[in-house]
Design goal:
Layout (H helix, E strand, L loop, with lengths): L1 H22 L1 H26 L2 E5 L6 E6 L7 E2 L10 E2 L11 E8 L2 E3 L1 E4 L5 E5 L2 E5 L5 E6 L2 E7 L6 E3 L1
Antiparallel strand pairs: 1-2, 1-7, 2-3, 2-4, 5-6, 5-10, 7-8, 8-9, 10-11, 11-12
Length: 166
């Protein structure tokens, strides 16, 4: 009898908890999209401010990293997050640390999606992959985040470098 009461209580707790967790998915997805958008904006601003090249790398599933680079797209070392002073790696910590959020970088050139974006000091935006310049960035480029049936896109304008969360 006691076992049935415990099972019933666990069932009731699960019925209350599961909808509450699902209701947080849109908030977590929005927070993750904001974090990705801020990282892209930071990379664009930092390249212009310092007159250097930066490589935004989304080649590792679930991660977005920013590296110091040169015109040939070489990774010369991780760029540090100005707040944490640790390497800028979105996905290694909250909110993307949640296993329920997937992230895919798609930087288009020639109609093909690549996983890296080279940001130049004068605002140049070039799709890269594997150290090879794939060409000027095209429309539709950005990062897509998904959580279950929900998705958010962080788009980057090929003409202006403007970053927008959609």
């Amino acid at each position: 009898m006691e076992v049935l009461i415990v099972i019933a209580l666990i069932g009731i707790a699960a019925m209350v908890t599961i909808p509450m967790l699902r209701s947080q998915e849109p908030t977590q997805l929005d927070a993750a999209a904001t974090e990705v958008g801020n990282a892209l904006r930071f990379a664009l601003g930092e390249a212009q401010r310092t007159g250097s090249y930066l490589l935004v790398d989304a080649s590792t599933p679930g991660h977005l990293r920013v590296h110091a680079s040169n015109a040939s797209g070489a990774m010369l070392g991780a760029l540090n997050d100005p707040l944490t002073k640790s390497p800028l790696d979105i996905g290694a910590s909250a909110p993307l640390g949640s296993s329920s959020i997937a992230m895919t970088g798609s930087f288009f050139s020639g109609g093909v999606a690549y996983t890296q974006l080279l940001v130049g000091p004068a605002g140049q935006l070039r799709a890269f992959e594997g150290g090879i310049d794939r060409g000027a960035l095209q429309s539709g480029s950005g990062v897509v985040l998904t959580s279950g049936t929900l998705s958010a896109a962080v788009a980057i304008s090929e003409a202006t470098g403007r970053v927008a969360i959609q």
